[in-house]
Amino acid sequence: VGVIGNLVHSSPNIKKEVLLAGALQPVIGLLSSCCTESQREAALLLGQFASADSDCKVHIVQRGAVRPLIEMLQSPDIQLKEMSAFALGRLAQDSHNQAGIVYNGGLVPLLKLLDSKNGSLQHNAAFALYGIADNEDNVSDFIKVGGVQKLQDGEFIVQATKDCVAKTLKRLEEKIIGRVLMHLLYLMRIGEKVVQRRVALALAHLCSPEDQRTIFIDNNGLDLLLDLLGSTNLKQQQDGSVALYKLANKAMTLSSVDAAPPSPTPQVYLGEQYVNSSTLSDVTFLVEGKRFYAHRIALLASSDAFRAMFDGGYREKDARDIEIPNIRWEVFELMMRQVQFIYTGSVEVTTNIAQDLLRAADQYLLEGLKRLCEYAIAQDVNIDNISSMYELSEAFHAMSLRHTCVLFILEQFDKISIQPGHAHLIQRIIPEIRNYFAKALRPNPRNS
């Protein structure tokens, strides 16, 4: 067999002559030999035969080569596994053979070989899986047995294998439409729990953005991912967090704040020269014994809180001096003077003053200033302060900051999971994640 293999390798014409001479069936018979060396040589030669043309690939399968090749994948002999994976990889590049390899039980053994520390064996298995993924009938089987997670989590030795795996995932992604998607949704509803979770995880990574609402809201895929995130099993938590983060990035309306929001445009700007100026001032704030001169028209145009204060039934409506008992002078001055927001419509919020300004902006319902404070604070979110930042967002109804914290937790879960109290933090954010996705994946009125 080795001699024939060398001849076949040396010339395509010799390969044709050997096939015409009737070598195929005896070589397939040697796959069942009790001699390991003969099996290896036979598998290698079949792989070489399979590169000839499509008809040859089909003939090899029709004559019974697939089942013994799959059995060889589970041999303790590394070289035997390598050669059988090589032959199956060549055979799997023909559309007629892809379903048959899966039907005969080849998918799971090939996926297991991705864990090998042998680069050639790992690559041969990856190449075979790439061929199998080309058949849409195999997509559900791929996902049911955890194949997508295997491809995503694998540690691949050579770059060619990494590229092959990336192409396989892309191939699977392109096929999750129409009847394939419908069947996966069916499995996600009625399959065993482990299958339901595998489907939800795979779809989070591979589905198109247009199908996200159908999958994760209408068919409860989001609940499956949140169950994983809330699990006591760390690996399940990690899988859930990665999938949710991927899902969030796909949702166009759902992302961490990546650009400072524009300053809002109140109807009246008096100008910087009127900041804390007695000129035309018709109201004075008393803060820690100090006077801050202001102008009702600017305040009325800038904030619902000030509008209620001066245009409602409160005692401050006609007061000339208004005492502010629950805010420090420095913070009030930052809000009204240093920031100059109410008077000029422009603002520069730095991280060292952002938290104090957020409290003041929330108190006085300055929504534009509040959003800018949230943006500034979000730039400072890190592993050490994420818990306190999330608490800050809850205390002051800072939704933009809260969403940034949620995305940060999902993205950095591996690091956060080793921090004290991480389990409590995860449980706290799960309801927020649910609301977050319900909003992000809501129907577009223009499309409906």
UniProtKB/TrEMBL annotation:
InterPro entries membership: ABAP1/ARIA (IPR044282), ARM-like (IPR011989), ARM-type_fold (IPR016024), Armadillo (IPR000225), BTB/POZ_dom (IPR000210), SKP1/BTB/POZ_sf (IPR011333)
Top-level lineage group: Eukaryota
SUPFAM superfamilies in alphabetical order: ARM repeat, POZ domain
Ranges where the BTB domain occurs: 281-351
ARM repeat extents: 64-106, 105-147
Pathway stated in the Swiss-Prot or TrEMBL entry: Protein modification; protein ubiquitination
Name of the protein in its database record: BTB domain-containing protein
Organism from which the protein derives: Ensete ventricosum
